[in-house]
Amino acid sequence: MAMANFFFLSLCLLLTSGIIEAAPSTTLINHLPGFNGTFPSKHYAGYITVGESSGKNLFYYFAVSERNPLKDPVVLWLNGGPGCSSFDGFVYEHGPFNFEEKPKGSLPSLHLNPYSWSKVSNIIYLDSPAGVGFSYWDNSSSHITGDLETASNTHSFVLKWFQQFPEFLPNPFYISGESYAGIFVPTLASQIAEGIKRAAKPIINFKGYMVGNAVTDERFDGNALVPFAHGMGLISDSIFEEVEAACKGNYHDPREPACFQNLQLVLQAIAGLNIYDILEPCYHNPGTKQEVKGNTSLPLMSFQQLGETERPLAVRKRMFGRAWPLGAPVRDGIVPLWPLLEKNAFVPCFNDEVATLWLNDAAVREAIHAKPESVTGRWQLCTGRLEYNHDAGSMIPYHTNLTHQGYRALVFSGDHDMCVPFTGSQAWTRSLGYKTLEEWRPWTCDGEVAGYLQRYENDLTFLTVKGAGHTVPEYKPREALQFYSRWLVGEPL
């Protein structure tokens, strides 16, 4: 009896301290090239196979909370694209490390990030769908997928991940992401909610989700740019009045020649700007092979063609049903403001060299248990390999359904992003018709106004981050950690 009590007490102590773990020992990360200190918490990485018939292997990096692992929320992070690696979030936004660039060709030095989201949560960075980042297919040479299939595969991943890490099942679980993850997150949340109703095992303690500068709805997103450009002083009153009169508020799908002609004036005014943050210059210097082609003299057949690339039209139609409208997704080379002449995935105005160098180093891949380049291909911030079906439609019904079921939702926007402007997110959240519980007001970080918010019934909050671009934690890491940590525990923002 005494021995039994001893073992019971030992087990309780292990559980309380967060030491006990069921994860395969092969997933534990013991070191990272470029980092010479002590990890602030345990880190794991590896693959989980979903859709066994096609052999989709999804890669994850898991940073255990630095605070209280067995009580803090578990948060799944997804970057967008579709086709962008969630190491974007890990390296450039809210991962455990800051990456210090070294002389050209040398690996960066890693330093602890004081604003890492792992300070207050357990966080999983997932490369999804297969074919993105380090995730790969076993049995397919063509990477054809879409919104609904991605949600189903990611749901399978989540269930299998919790089977490997069962000690985290009691923790609150949240899904988060930005940009085209505005599609990934609600569709996945819906799958998880339905799985809970069906008592799919294991039962996940799902509480809610957050999306940033999120692609949501063709009409709201497509109509967001013109009022944003006017409000930010990027177009004159006269241009705004003329385009408003000609288009009658329908900017995303212009039918009249006069509307299109006036929209060209908007394009000409904004063509030289960094679409991800209008306050920032473009990273790439003129004359380099990755120069952004903001060429307003290109003959455009329709305003919707502003988002087209060199991909064959048949592939674009398979991906989006038709040419993707203004205001839609982000970092996979399908830019909604002007054509890019480069093939595959190129992110305009964005410096991805540190991540590309570090993640393509063989020692780094080995340290994080990623397959070699011969299996996954070269790591890219955003891939052009996917043929992607946008088959879930508008996310507004998803948000309505989820919030009516009691799941918490935070919709946040960097207010200087021109790719998915805050004006669209503000409009669609308001369109739900929910009663306003808190009228538009500032929220603060360290005593300073950090942005504005409006809170609705059904636990829906819309929040802006002042001065931030498309990837909010990258531009405003302190403020991002503030609203993230407060919202997760239900504190007032």
Architecture blueprint of SSEs:
Elements: H1 2-17, E1 43-50, E2 56-63, E3 74-78, H2 87-94, E4 97-100, E5 109-112, E6 122-127, E7 136-137, E8 143-146, H3 147-164, E9 173-178, H4 181-197, E10 206-212, H5 218-222, H6 225-231, H7 237-247, H8 257-270, H9 313-320, H10 353-359, H11 362-367, H12 373-376, E11 386-389, H13 396-404, E12 408-414, H14 422-431, E13 436-445, E14 448-456, E15 460-465, H15 472-475, H16 477-488
Parallel strand pairs: 3-6, 3-9, 8-11, 9-10, 10-12, 12-15
Antiparallel strand pairs: 1-2, 2-6, 2-7, 4-5, 13-14, 14-15
Helix pairs in contact: 3-4, 4-13, 7-8
What does this entry look like structurally?
The protein is α/β, with parallel strands linked by helices and 493 residues long. It folds into two domains: 268 residues, Alpha/Beta hydrolase fold, catalytic domain (Rossmann fold), CATH 3.40.50.1820; 133 residues, no CATH class. Helix content is 32%, strand content 18%. The protein contains 16 helices and 15 strands. The strands form three sheets. Strands 1, 2, 3, 6, 7, 9, 10, 12, 13, 14 and 15 form an eleven-stranded mixed β-sheet that branches. Helix 4 runs parallel beside helix 13. It is globular. The N terminus is likely disordered.
